[in-house]
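Hallway conversation turned thread

IA: we were arguing at lunch whether anyone had actually written out Dihydrofolate reductase end to end. Turns out nobody had. So, for the record, here is the sequence (196 residues) and right after it the structure tokens. Reply here if something looks off.
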Amino acid sequence: MGNVIAAAAVSLDGFVADTGDAVGPLFDWYNNGPVEVYGTDQGRPFKVSRASADYMNATWPKIGACVIGRHLFDLTNGWHGVPAVGEHVFVVTHTPPTGWPFPDAPFTFVSGIEEAITQARAFAGDRDVSVTGGNLTGQALTAGLVDEIAYNVVPVVFGTGVRFFGDYAGGQVLLDDPTVVQGDRVTHLHYRVKAG
């Protein structure tokens, strides 16, 4: 069985968006380099530095499914029915959308984080499951469901906004030393959550 990886681009002070849900410069590194990298959507290339491309090409193909919240789903319109990475998206929501124009898209709407991760792991098999940063990360961490953290730090301070770990208040979680990859305008820190 693969790993559950909490992942996002974050500001130096730990925010994945500002108070208006804008990402500002957090995604600039996705288009500031010479190397094209693709997620699931072959019509949407990312152009990153060689170091970031090597990191992405080593991690993204291992992702079988993603878990996101309803808020991100609404902000992106579910990426128009095409998962950003992986083959299937599990959306945590108590209110599935009605009239979404992509009814055959590989999206499943689930009422809780534990059930979403259970279904995502079953779908992914021996591949990894990505959990998007924000309240879901905090909920998954509290439930002991996170194996790794992919913390892509962008050199900016937001001051306020949406936290990578949401409103997490579950106590200390120790991590192993990170794998560190220095890209252009981003530092990829990949941590393993310590067992026990």
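OS: looked through it. The mean pLDDT is 95.
IA: good, adding that to the notes. The chain is about 20% helix and 30% strand.
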